[in-house]
Design brief:
Blueprint (H helix, E strand, L loop, with lengths): L5 H10 L6 H22 L30 H6 L4 E2 L2 E2 L8
Helix pairs in contact: 1-2
Family: Belongs to the GatC family.
Pfam families: GatC
Keywords: ATP-binding, Ligase, Nucleotide-binding, Protein biosynthesis
Length: 97
């Protein structure tokens, strides 16, 4: 396995625009190396007979019929506003002229 050097960590952190202190560079190098070793183990698994999936549990849309219903709640909701002008809420002006 290729050894992750301190220079590699510095380069990646610079590309990612992350500030890493010198005391943490070696720690991150070791962690990245462990991650790459784990990925190498995963690459050895035979997945030829396993179909590709996007998720572990299949998701199904639950649909219902649309029911047209007369509803006149607009006026009731507008009546709850502290200030109303016709079919609109009236709010204080926030932009200066």
């Amino acid at each position: 396995m290729t050894r992750i050097s301190s220079d590699d960590v510095r380069k990646v952190s610079k590309l990612a625009r992350l500030e890493i202190s010198e005391e943490h560079v070696e720690t991150y190098a070791n962690q990245l190396e462990e991650i790459l070793e784990y990925i190498a183990q995963l690459e050895k698994i035979d997945t030829k007979n396993i179909p590709p999936t996007t998720r572990a549990v299949e998701v199904v849309n639950v649909l219902r019929e649309d029911i047209v219903d007369k509803s006149n709640v607009r006026d009731k909701i507008l009546d709850l506003a502290p200030n109303r002008e016709g079919q609109f809420y009236r709010v204080p002006k926030i932009l200066a002229e």
